[in-house]
Amino acid sequence: MKPTPAQGRLYSHSAKFICASAILGLAAGCATQPPSASTTAPVAPAWTFVAQATDLLPGVYQSAYSSKTGQLYITSAVGRPPVRESHLMAFDPATQRLGTQVSPAAQASKQDGQLQAVYGIAVDDLHGQVWTTNTRSGSVAVYAQNSLALTKQFPDNATPHARDVVVDTAQQRAYVSSPASDLISVFDTTTLTPLPSIPLKGVGETPKPMSLALDSAHQRLYTVSLNTAEVFVIDTATGKQIASHPIPNAQGGAGIAVDNQAQQLYVAAQKSGNLSIMDALNGQILHQIPTGAGALNVAFDPVKRLAYVANRSAGTVTVVNTAGVIQAQIDTGSFPNHITMTPDGTAWALVKKNKDDPRLDRIVRIEARR
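The structure corresponding to this sequence follows.
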């Protein structure tokens, strides 16, 4: 759906610099460090950062980058059910402009106008598709990358409270997390059919899987549990859980990223407001760093070897190197929700506006410089 001329003015595509400085000081509202967490002695940061914001449609949630099209695909959904405003949109990182935008179809099982609103997102460059989660209906949908036309809408409750999705092109599988269950749902990306789910088993109560991180080179899929402070390891060749690792001093695990070169995991925890850097092979905690209130998501840049943490409640993005040293605390304002890396080592943070923010929902381009 193309915006009307009025919408085009409202959702201006002009980019605005929101910060351009040397390393910024720690923002107010950062979580305190857990007493037993290991830390690295303060070291002078090696990077500076420039951040630039571009307005988007309201309700931004997640994004995913396609190397095939060179586009970022972004989801948005506004408000609580019935959700009547939602968009899937293409964004060109080179020009920082929105391209094609579509609204999802109505949810057939509802009579209140609710859409199959899109939240989580992943790209499948092998088949030229975009996968989205429809969290409110517990479903998953597939769109064509070139037109954003709907290719497949799975039935409601295909995956309870579907959250994150990742696509493994090597195995031709899509994996979807379900924090309303202890399952990772699996779909065949060639036939667009469901496959047997992967049950997760931890040491205590039933886990609630949140974000997903794929290391296709080592045939590993990782997820973090919201309620049990555990990381789960899945062998993508067999489709079975092979390990679980506890995360001491972390509460409300939500975001996870993997460095497949060093075999390290980066886990963001909302309630404790910290980042845990772990050995992916044995689960050893290498560093724990307080980043900010509501540490929700994390992305790892293999080019400059930096991790970016979206601290949703603090309104900041924390940048950390592989040794656990904070390089910057970048003030994005409002609620940074999700971060995606592009192959040049640029971070793209989606920010939801709060009620007191005069700006619109936006995407913030963060460039690290020596």
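The first strand starts at residue 15 and ends at 21.
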